[in-house]
Amino acid sequence: MSDRRFVHALALGLDPAWRRMPSAERCRTAEELIAAVNAQPEVTTHAYSMVGLRAGADLLLWSLAPSLESLEEKSAAVLRSGMGRWMSVSHSFLGLIQASQYVKKPTPQEQSLFSGERSRYLIVYPFTKATDWYLLSRDARQGIMNEHMRIGHDFQEVRQLLANSFGLDDMDFLVAYETDDLPKFSELVRALRETDSRRSTVRDTPILVGVHRPIAEITALLGANETN
Q1: Is the same domain home to 130 and 204?
Q2: CATH number for position 62
Q3: Residue 224 confidence class, pLDDT cut points 50, 70, 90
Q4: Domain check: are 140 and 120 in the same one?
């Protein structure tokens, strides 16, 4: 597979009317959604529950694909599946995984979040820097990023992925973190607020937090297995 891969965070909200459908119909439509999420072997997709965690979002799909068309087809299949027809897109972040200009040799902490075992929590958000940042010299930017990365390396409980979104989405980057320890992640974010890199931040919201679960478990939480 090419080193250049597309990554997509797709947050979907469920129409509350779906929960008022007969139990058999809820189960049937949920099975169709599960099949759609698990289809297309060229697209790696992990499911996360956002039930009750953010208004308008219940399911977060985190996908990696070799092409934009593959992500398009995967999203289309999910949205036209039984339960997917009752869902709408609340957030969609698109990025391209490429080698970082600031990292000479990525550590496992900075590798793709699609390898190895999944952590319990995924945090994703869009990120944009000010124009002044890009007008700094390369050495000045590297020095600021060295401080940023040094602090990140102090939090080995947290893995990070930074994907470029220039020209592909409204933001500069798609940022994602994986961890089993949300309090420790919160400490990391607070520590990064005190670095020089924070001066150049223009946008780093909305922040989406999801709990990793099998897609069948998420549909059950949403009411697929309940009886009337």
Answers
A1: yes
A2: 3.30.70.1030
A3: very high
A4: yes
- Decide if pLDDT at 52 tops 80: yes
Surface-to-core class of residue 205, CB atoms within 10 Å of its CB (0-12 exposed, 13-18 middle, 19+ buried): exposed
Enter the tokens of residue 228.
């009337």
Spatial separation of the C-alpha atoms in residues 215 and 125, rounded to whole Å: 22
DSSP-derived secondary structure letter, 82: T
Total residue length of the chain: 228
In tens, the pLDDT along 8-43 reads 999 999 999 999 999 999 999 999 999 999 998 999
DSSP H helices, the chain, are 23-38, 68-80, 131-135, 138-153, 182-192, 215-222
- How do 121-129 and 158-164 pair as beta strands? unpaired
Closest CA to 126 of 178, 64, 174: 174
Residues linked to residue 201 through DSSP beta bridges, in sequence order: 129
| Separation between Cα atoms, residue 210 and residue 93, nearest integer Å | 15
Tell whether pTM > 0.90: yes
| Residues paired with residue 126 on neighbouring β-strands, in sequence order | 174
Residues 86/15, Cβ–Cβ less than 8 Å? yes
Token digits for 106? 């990525």
pLDDT tens digits, residue range 57-106?
A: 999 999 999 999 999 999 999 999 999 999 999 999 999 998 878 776 66
Answer yes or no: is 201 within a domain. Answer: yes
Q: What is the pLDDT of residues 144-197, one digit of tens each?
A: 999 999 999 999 999 999 999 999 999 999 999 999 999 999 999 999 999 999
